[in-house]
């Protein structure tokens, strides 16, 4: 990875038998893969599983020594297709991505691999980005597991359970010839904890060895007649095998007393929160000694009919705690209870919210409602807390995400906003990536977003006569699929839309990973493949690359031309400046070092003169930079706060450009601070400042004479 | 509230509310380090993702005394179940209460009292800030113990990062059963910026022992006269104006003498006195007029800006603000965009009007003023240029802008005079409507346009229907958006 080192994390991957691993959940999964003898790993970065990709990308030597093949896949579809290696060969393979979005992209390949089935264990690690902090549509990966028949593991959220789940998943996959999905929620990925490590295992067969001895079995390929046979095989062979494995290896768990009038069935990943809810209600303790029977589904698909029947038998009602909707598990439980001819009432969404996080608080409320009806003898405390009074609550502002300080994408949208004043409003098709923050204040630019790399495709229905639509796409989305689905499509269909490709050198939103057009050298991968070359190669004629997005004049001129040029066909503006977050990661230590070595270093930052600022904040409405804020007005006559640039300013230059382009106000200044100046420079500038100071003193005397 | 079995509870839950980039994750790691070092189990979780980009993020740490069995730790703070909340900013302290993480029976709430303004607060066209006082009042009620201080100032003082200050405050709060050395050791073990982080830790540690403290407010001392002319005007203010207007009038006179001269300040006092003569207790209109009139009369023109930009005090302020070290050279570049219009306004009224009235001449001249200029004030050439412009001050009274502004001011004062006896509230509203006029270039023109549109609409109403409330609403609408749509809609509906 370009600007960040994961060397410390790579060291954790080397731990051996009996040593204690302490770290994040997703890193524990990474280690568990090596302990399971995985032969190949792929995936596409994205919160919350980026860390897995980042650490593997930095672990070349370790992986080479173990004979493990790793790829930073071009997309989730690419990653899923890698699992083909486990179809004919006993190779254990794992792929990872952010879900549900990544699973959407991968689903074609997933359907294929699930249809033909696998020989070697195939594991799909999905970071379930659901609930608080999520940046995507709220859907369940569960649906994909069901429709393609892949087993879904949702382990209890503690590191030993998660690590164990990885190892069991491979065995389950092999025992039932079925790919297995490991679902990890965001908090579990980022959760720290410990487990006792095992030695890493070389794969029983490496990808090299597999390639050297090809095996063909056309009955594994999805084409008639095999595709029909696959379906039968799924039902008659793989399904029973999967159930048998889960049951025999007791992958699901039971807590609390064996018998009870009521019981709880919970997804494994929610177990800790449920236990806390029960603790607060006086129904459990810190160690999970529940007073009610709890059946914990570490495998949420398939359900195990015998286990379900045994648990429900003799109970009047069972509450199922299942996050998200539709409530697939609740539906299935009802079916299973019916088939077993039990009279147990399955209660779920009628006492719990249909949407949103199942926090301990939410579950405690639902559980209380459930028990009040089904076990009224229990005396449960009321957990409600008086809300913060509305007049106080009203003071607390929302904090929508925004572009980082000095972000090179900000000027792109400042340009669009200023251009809107000239050309009027335009339909803007947005994309996935940091640039989607444009839809939030202060820019409020963008009409729709249809998915990663689909900005241009999202504008393709617009066949404008006069007013062109603008599509935005990031470099990450561009290489993921936008080149073909967006640009290729626009060329082929003679679309007249304008596409702005934000080329910041990284897959920035997912953590700054390198991509094809990255400008940095990467030992393990090739970079420096320009976007302009790619779009020209696919047939785009009108292409402008702006190599400094902060240059508002050029940026606006390019956009203006793109909007008004008589030329037909797609207009592509490549807006190119390095991601500031990553740039600073590299530059800050370099500058610090140079300073300490006594080398000449120039630092630039911006400021606002509070005595000329009148507190209109136009500058902020055209920027939104975190370093450009407000502070109480030091002028005793004024009330409105003045603009203020804090010390986090990186001197990107946008503030000055905005004051010029928008004819705002003369309050901004740029200060260039020279540390360790050369001798000549020091002498000359000292002389100059003495001269200026002399004149200033004279003026000050004159002013004092006429002063109050 | 919570019916937790206290005997079974050997656990401490800590929620950290921070903004992206403030090091909430680092703080969470330090806490876990300290706990593990003392044989406790520690688990931390968070939901970073997009919130990392400037949004607010909650980190949650649970510590449990290690025993034979592994406890089941929670992955998120549960209302009523959080022992310690640490918030890096005042509104995040508020958010901790909004989400009920802080409760009166259990929680030690450690919150900064400084503000980092949210985008909605920053981008308001006037003052969009939320009230911090209400948050502090609520914090005292909704926590078992509230430790509040300006963590940003502490960070500045120690040359550290806010996460170190928060860590220090946690250590100093005594809410965790670990000694000070253990906290400091965690900072040392991390091996990053150890010296400055220890200083920040110390600041936070000490602040946690002190009472709740808000950030230092700006102190606007009433100016004292230093010259004979100043003393004469000072005497006039005390003699001729009602007491509630004194402070603003003193500031006003000081401003206008600096802006122009004693004569101009005298004009200001004459105008003020005339209105005061029509006003009555509690003299709110006169007091507000003292402020608004001074602001209007010291309108920002090229002369004023050049003067303010080239002063020694300003150079010093910039040096301090950018934290330039000893021996470092600071160059200052301004972003000025004087347009032909502004230049003509500075010229004597006749010449200015002539140029602006001659389309061919002005369009020919205009091309020299289309580009913004980078004015390097610290270079000799530009410094002298700015002083030259500032030196035009004695000619200001003959300038076109002066004539225009005085005409507008007189009209405005006329409106105040006409309404003050009949409807004091309306007169006050007219005085305050001056706040719409501010800024430069496009901003100034928009403000003036709104001001004039509202004035015209007000006086288009029948005399009995010119109400203060309507005027106030109109001003609010004018400040609602910078496209002017809200105001247009209101005026169209009227």
Automatic annotation (TrEMBL), chain A:
One of its GO terms (molecular function) is thiamine pyrophosphate binding. The keyword Protein biosynthesis does not apply. Residues 604-635 form the 4Fe-4S ferredoxin-type domain. GO terms for biological process: small molecule metabolic process. SUPFAM superfamilies: Thiamin diphosphate-binding fold (THDP-binding). PROSITE patterns: 4FE4S_FER_2. The keyword Coiled coil does not apply. This is Indolepyruvate ferredoxin oxidoreductase alpha subunit.
Automatic annotation (TrEMBL), chain B:
GO terms for molecular function: oxidoreductase activity, acting on the aldehyde or oxo group of donors. Gene3D superfamilies: Pyruvate-ferredoxin oxidoreductase, PFOR, domain III. Residues 247-456 form the DUF6537 domain. Residues 20-205 form the Pyruvate/ketoisovalerate oxidoreductase catalytic domain. Pfam families: DUF6537, POR. Keywords: Oxidoreductase, Pyruvate. It comes from the Bacteria. This is Indolepyruvate ferredoxin oxidoreductase beta subunit.
């Amino acid at each position: 990875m370009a600007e960040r080192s994961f060397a410390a994390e790579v060291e954790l991957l080397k731990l051996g038998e009996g040593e204690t691993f302490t770290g994040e959940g997703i890193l524990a999964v990474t280690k568990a893969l090596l302990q399971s003898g995985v032969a190949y790993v792929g995936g596409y970065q994205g919160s919350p599983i980026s860390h897995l990709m980042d650490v593997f990308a930095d672990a070349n030597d370790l992986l080479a020594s173990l004979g493990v093949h790793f790829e930073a896949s071009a997309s989730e579809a690419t990653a899923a297709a890698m699992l083909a290696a486990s179809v004919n060969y006993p190779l254990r393979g794992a792929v990872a991505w952010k879900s549900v979005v990544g699973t959407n992209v991968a689903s074609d390949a997933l359907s294929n691999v699930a249809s033909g089935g696998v020989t070697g264990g195939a594991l799909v690690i999905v970071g379930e980005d659901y609930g608080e902090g999520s940046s995507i549509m709220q859907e369940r990966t569960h649906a994909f597991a069901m429709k393609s028949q892949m087993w879904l593991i949702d382990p209890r959220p503690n590191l030993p359970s998660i690590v164990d789940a990885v190892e069991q998943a491979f065995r389950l996959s092999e025992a039932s010839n079925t790919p297995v999905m490991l679902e990890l929620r965001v908090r579990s990925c980022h959760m720290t904890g410990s487990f006792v490590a095992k030695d890493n295992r070389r794969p029983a067969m490496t990808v090299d060895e597999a390639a050297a001895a090809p095996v063909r079995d056309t009955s594994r390929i999805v084409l008639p007649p095999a595709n029909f046979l696959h379906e039968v095989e799924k039902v008659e062979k793989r399904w029973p095998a999967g159930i048998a494995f889960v049951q025999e290896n007791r992958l699901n768990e039971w807590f609390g007393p064996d018998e009870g009038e009521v019981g709880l069935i919970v997804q494994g990943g929610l177990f800790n929160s449920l236990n806390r809810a029960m603790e607060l209600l006086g129904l459990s303790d810190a160690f999970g000694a529940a007073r009610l029977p709890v059946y914990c589904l570490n495998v949420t698909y398939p359900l195990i009919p015998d286990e379900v029947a045994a648990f429900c038998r003799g109970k009047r009602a069972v509450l199922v705690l299942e996050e998200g909707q539709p409530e697939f598990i609740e539906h299935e439980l009802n079916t299973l209870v019916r088939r077993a001819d039990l009279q147990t009432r399955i209660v779920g969404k009628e006492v719990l919210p249909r949407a949103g996080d199942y926090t301990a608080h939410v579950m405690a409320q639902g559980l209380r409602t459930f028990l009040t009806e089904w076990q009224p003898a229990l005396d449960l405390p009321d957990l409600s807390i008086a809300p913060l009074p509305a007049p106080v609550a009203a003071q607390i502002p929302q904090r929508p995400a925004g572009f980082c300080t000095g972000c090179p994408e900000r000027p792109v949208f400042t340009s669009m906003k200023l251009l809107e004043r000239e050309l009027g409003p335009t339909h803007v098709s947005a994309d996935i990536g940091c640039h989607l923050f444009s839809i939030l204040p202060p820019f409020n630019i963008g009409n729709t977003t249809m998915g990663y790399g689909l900005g241009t495709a999202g504008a393709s229905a617009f066949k404008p006569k006069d007013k062109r639509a603008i599509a935005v796409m990031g470099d990450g989305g561009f290489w993921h699929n936008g080149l073909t689905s967006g640009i290729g499509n626009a060329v082929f269909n003679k679309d007249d839309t304008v596409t702005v490709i934000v080329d910041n050198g990284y897959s920035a939103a997912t953590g700054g990973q390198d991509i094809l057009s990255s400008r940095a050298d990467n030992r393990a991968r090739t970079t420096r493949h320009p976007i302009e070359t790619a779009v020209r190669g696919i047939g785009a004629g009108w292409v402008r690359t702006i190599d400094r997005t902060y240059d508002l004049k050029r940026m606006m001129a390019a956009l203006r031309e793109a909007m008004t040029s008589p030329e037909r066909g797609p207009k592509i503006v490549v807006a190119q400046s390095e991601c500031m977050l990553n740039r600073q990661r590299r530059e800050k230590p370099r500058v610090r070092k140079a300073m300490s070595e006594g080398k000449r270093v120039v630092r630039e930052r911006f400021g606002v003169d509070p005595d000329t600022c009148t507190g209109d904040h136009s500058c902020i409405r055209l920027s939104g930079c975190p370093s450009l804020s407000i502070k109480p007005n030091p002028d005793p006559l004024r009330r409105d706060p003045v603009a203020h640039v804090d010390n986090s300013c990186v001197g990107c230059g946008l503030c000055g450009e905005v004051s010029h382009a928008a004819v705002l106000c003369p309050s901004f200044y740029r200060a260039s601070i020279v540390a360790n100046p050369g001798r000549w420079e020091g002498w000359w500038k000292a002389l100059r400042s003495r001269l200026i100071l002399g004149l200033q003193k004279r003026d000050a005397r004159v002013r004092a004479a006429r002063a109050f | 509230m919570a019916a937790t079995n206290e005997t079974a509870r050997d656990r401490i839950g800590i929620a950290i509310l921070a903004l992206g980039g403030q090091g909430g994750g680092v703080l969470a790691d330090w806490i876990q380090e300290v706990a593990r070092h003392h044989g406790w189990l520690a688990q931390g979780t968070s939901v970073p993702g997009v919130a990392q980009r400037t949004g607010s993020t909650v980190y949650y740490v649970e510590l449990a005394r290690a025993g034979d069995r592994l406890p089941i730790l929670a992955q998120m703070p549960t209302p009523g179940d959080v022992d310690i909340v640490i918030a890096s900013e005042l509104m995040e302290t508020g958010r901790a209460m909004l989400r009920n993480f802080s409760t009166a029976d259990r929680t030690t709430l450690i919150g900064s009292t400084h503000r980092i303004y949210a985008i909605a607060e920053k981008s308001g066209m006037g003052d969009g800030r939320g009230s911090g006082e209400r948050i502090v009042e609520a914090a005292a009620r909704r926590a078992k113990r509230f430790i509040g201080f300006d963590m940003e100032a502490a960070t500045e003082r120690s040359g550290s990062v806010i996460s170190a200050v928060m860590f220090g405050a946690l250590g100093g709060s005594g809410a965790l059963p670990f000694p000070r050395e253990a906290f400091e050791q965690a900072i040392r073990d991390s091996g990053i910026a150890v010296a400055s982080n220890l200083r920040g830790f110390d600041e936070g540690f000490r602040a946690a022992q002190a009472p709740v403290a808000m950030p230092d407010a700006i102190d606007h001392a009433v100016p004292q006269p230093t010259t004979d002319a100043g003393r004469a005007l000072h005497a006039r203010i005390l003699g001729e104006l009602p007491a509630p207007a004194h402070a603003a009038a003193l500031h006003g006179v000081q401003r206008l003498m600096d802006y122009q001269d004693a004569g101009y300040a005298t004009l200001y006092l004459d105008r003020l006195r005339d209105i005061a003569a029509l006003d009555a207790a509690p003299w709110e209109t006169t007091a507000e007029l003292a402020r608004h009139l001074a602001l209007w009369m010291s309108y920002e023109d090229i002369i004023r800006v050049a003067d303010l930009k080239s002063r020694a005090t300003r150079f010093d302020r910039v040096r301090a603000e950018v934290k330039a070290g000893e021996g470092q050279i600071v160059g200052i570049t301004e972003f000025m965009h004087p347009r032909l219009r502004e230049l003509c306004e500075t010229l004597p009224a006749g010449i200015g009007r002539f140029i602006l009235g001659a389309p061919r001449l002005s369009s020919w001249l205009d091309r020299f003023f289309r580009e913004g200029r980078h004015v390097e004030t610290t270079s000799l050439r530009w410094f002298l240029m700015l002083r030259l412009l500032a030196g035009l001050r004695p000619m200001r009274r003959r300038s076109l802008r002066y004539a225009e502004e005085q005409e507008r001011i007189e009209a405005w004062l006329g409106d105040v005079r006409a309404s003050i006896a009949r409807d004091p509230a309306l007169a006050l509203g007219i005085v305050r409507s001056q706040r719409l006029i501010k800024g430069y270039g496009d901003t100034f023109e928009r403000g003036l346009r709104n001001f004039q549109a509202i004035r015209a609409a007000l006086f288009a109403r029948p005399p009995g229907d010119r109400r203060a409330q309507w005027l106030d609403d109109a001003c609010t609408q004018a400040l609602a958006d910078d496209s002017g749509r809200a105001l247009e809609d209101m005026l169209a509906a009227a």
